[in-house]
Design a protein that fits this description.
GO terms for molecular function: serine-type endopeptidase activity. The protein has about 700 residues and is of the alpha+beta class. About 40% of the residues lie in helices and about 10% in strands.
Length: about 700
């Protein structure tokens, strides 16, 4: 008998609700028992072995669920497939020696009846760990509310209590943001298909993301669970309430005086807050991070989806439309959201290279006092803007209605929107078309009008005319999958990586690459100044005849202080090879220990060669007191040419007898200065006579 067969008989008991059927079998009989047995198996395995590594990963989600007191009451109908997958995977590691079919349902399944074995395949091990982690996240996610008992949403006058409650929560939180941040703190709330407010005597936890101003951890958002107990709102919401106090019994509270500082000092991924009247408390405890979206960046629906070059399939667009329709009923019927229910106001989440299809609302935590009047928008306009939003989601493109909200009257606005609606090719998306048409009709045309009591029954009528057609499309496209779960798994390329890279720039012509060097050389020649051009012919300049290969430029290579050529010296033998000190050259910089930093490279050898040439030029310009040959003044201009300076330096600035050592000339000014002045004049005159004019 398999675990699924053990689980299945509860489905035949029609007197029990679906959530109760799960709570009786899985948490009470299977997982708590297996956790204790797995712990014993862990200690019996070899340290650092593969078996112990598996049992470690197996126990991690189990211990998370156990520390949270096995909160399987957080599961609902949408987790039926997950529970079945868990049981199927557990069957890979468990074998119960016997099952007493006559025993009562309350009989404890002891550890002695379980034989724990590691799955044989690596894929089976990985799948088991993944489904347990998913189950742990679902049971500890207080931000996700259970769906209604009935498939059709209940009609109720309390069609937007969540909006009022969230508004009050944000106001209370903002009162404790006593910081000097330049930008105001914002709050981000994920949109789901089903939300509810607690009963007057029940505690409840909302998951909200609060913006951080200290980005030292690289996380712009702080995931925050806000628990609130004292409420005066009606309990006849359109969705199901939880009868269980979700707060753990053993927790301690710390009064929060500065929420900004509390977020910056938070040691856990999730910050737990409790609201008690006007006071705000931080609740101790690690808190399981349920969303993992603290590094996400909000991007408007217009930019992220409609401006995305990757097309979203119709299945995903239908799922997004259903979530947005439910959220309109929750949050915008009495507008908590001040920026409007449009493509600019609704946000998606961008994380790295992915754009997550998780619709969110982002707003300042308290733009108005708690008891102030919220912005008033007519019901017809709300429905009309939602019709436009549905059309834009279906087309995955924007419609030209940016300024029409303020400029046109409601009737003219509806006429223009209907023209756009008529040209949309809906194809087989009949539910999509029906929902958009119902919103276009609104109250004026009776699509969502109820003659008896419009205000009291609008929620039920909206769900019947707008939500249910989309739900039928969802069933045909996705089966019994939960729309919220589907959206959490969908993504597009982020807008940062979606756009193609610009074409590579074409290489510049040679004369443009060295225009600045050429200009500097011309100025230096005009002013009879020796110039230093520190740019090599390596890499992208290898084929460019500038500057080292230019016929008017002396190419300088590097050597150490003993005249030995450096290993990074050029190997071009077509020209005279001239070297000077360029390896391990002391610079004017010092390190942390105040020691001189030494540098290497031809860029450090070139200035030394320039100074050597300058010394030669200064000597030839100031020899009036010496006896010089008669043609010396006529020969002196040749010293300002490449061939003239090369010839003179290779004869007067090198150690005598080593002019052509290893086919090169190692120049240094000290050799020139060691030579007698008359000898310098004679050698310079002789070399210049052999150089062209």
């Amino acid at each position: 008998m398999s675990l699924v067969s053990v689980f299945a008989p509860t489905h035949r008991d029609h007197s029990m609700s679906a959530p109760l059927k799960r709570r009786l079998r899985l948490p009470q009989a299977t997982l708590p028992t297996l956790t204790r047995a797995a712990a014993q198996k862990y200690y019996s395995t070899k340290q650092f072995g593969s078996a112990r590594a598996f049992w470690t990963r197996f126990l991690s989600p189990c211990l998370i669920m156990e520390s949270g007191r096995w909160r399987f009451h957080n599961l609902d109908d949408q987790h039926d497939r997950l529970v079945t997958r868990v049981l199927d995977c557990l069957e890979q590691i468990t074998l119960r020696s016997f099952i007493n079919e006559t025993s009562s349902d309350n009989e404890e399944l002891s550890m002695e009846h379980w034989d724990m074995t590691k799955p044989t395949g690596k894929q089976q091990c990985q799948l088991l760990v993944e489904v347990l982690a998913e189950l742990a996240q679902a049971t500890n996610d207080d931000g996700k509310q259970p769906p209604p008992k009935r498939s059709v949403v209940v009609a109720s006058s309390a069609k937007s209590p969540v909006a009022r409650l969230i508004h009050d929560i944000l106001y209370t939180i903002s009162e404790h943001c006593r910081c000097k941040c330049v930008l105001p703190h914002t709050a981000m709330l994920l949109l789901f298909t089903h939300r509810h407010v607690p009963k007057n005597d029940d505690a409840y936890c909302f998951t909200i993301f609060l913006s951080r101003r200290n980005l030292g951890r690289g996380k712009p958002w702080q995931e925050t669970g806000v628990s609130i107990k004292e409420q005066k709102l009606k309990s006849d919401s359109r969705v199901k309430f939880s009868d269980t106090d979700l707060r753990p019994k053993d927790y301690s509270l710390t009064l929060v005086s500065n929420l900004c500082k509390t977020m910056n000092n938070a040691a856990t991924a999730r910050l737990n807050l409790d609201i008690n009247g006007k006071l705000l408390f931080q609740r101790s405890g690690a808190g399981l991070q349920t969303m993992g979206l603290d590094k996400a960046e909000p991007v408007s629906l217009e930019d992220g989806l409609f401006g995305n070059k990757t097309e979203l399939d119709i299945k995903s667009r239908t799922c997004l439309a259903l979530v947005l329709s439910y959220s309109l009923l929750d949050f915008c019927w009495e507008p908590w959201f001040p920026h409007g229910w449009t493509k600019k106001g609704i946000k998606l989440l961008q994380h790295g290279r992915k754009l997550l299809l998780r619709p969110t609302l982002v707003t300042h935590m308290s733009p108005h006092p708690k008891n102030s009047e919220m912005p008033q928008v007519t019901s017809d306009l709300k429905l009309l803007t939602h019709a436009i939003l549905l059309m834009e989601v279906f087309r995955q493109g924007s419609l030209p209605f940016e300024e029409d909200f303020k400029r046109l009257k409601i009737d003219d606005f509806r006429v223009k929107a209907r023209k756009e609606f008529d040209v949309v090719e809906w194809d087989v998306s009949e539910g999509f078309r029906q929902s958009g048409r119902a919103c276009l009709g609104g109250f004026q045309h009776g699509a969502l009008n109820d003659a008896e009591d419009t205000g009291e029954s609008f929620a039920g009528l909206f769900c019947k005319a707008v939500v249910n057609p989309l739900k039928r499309d969802i069933v045909s496209l996705w089966g019994d999958r939960d729309p919220d779960q589907v959206l959490s798994e969908l993504s597009l390329p982020s807008i940062s990586y979606n756009n193609p890279s610009p074409p590579p720039t074409k290489p510049k012509p040679d004369h443009l690459k060295v225009s600045s060097i050429l200009s500097s050389r011309v100025k230096a020649c005009a002013s009879h100044t020796a110039s230093d051009c520190k740019a090599g012919n390596e890499g992208g300049n290898q084929q460019v005849p500038w500057p080292a290969k230019h016929p008017d430029v002396i190419c300088i290579n590097a050597a150490d202080s003993h005249g030995n050529m450096a290993n990074f010296a050029q190997t071009d033998t077509l020209r005279r090879r001239i070297y000077t000190l360029g390896e391990d050259v002391p610079s004017c910089e010092v390190d942390a220990q105040n020691n001189t930093i030494h540098r290497s490279g031809t860029s450090f050898a070139t200035p030394i060669a320039v100074e050597t040439a300058a010394i030669v030029l200064r000597f030839t310009n100031n020899i009036g007191h010496l006896s010089v040959p008669a043609d010396f003044d006529n020969l002196r201009p040749r010293l300002r040419t490449r061939s003239g300076m090369e010839s003179v330096m290779c004869k007067t600035c090198v150690l005598q007898g080593t002019e052509n050592r290893a086919g090169s000339s190692y120049i240094t000014p000290r050799f020139f200065l060691y030579m007698e002045e008359l000898s310098r004049v004679g050698i310079i005159t002789y070399e210049l006579r052999s150089c062209p004019e």
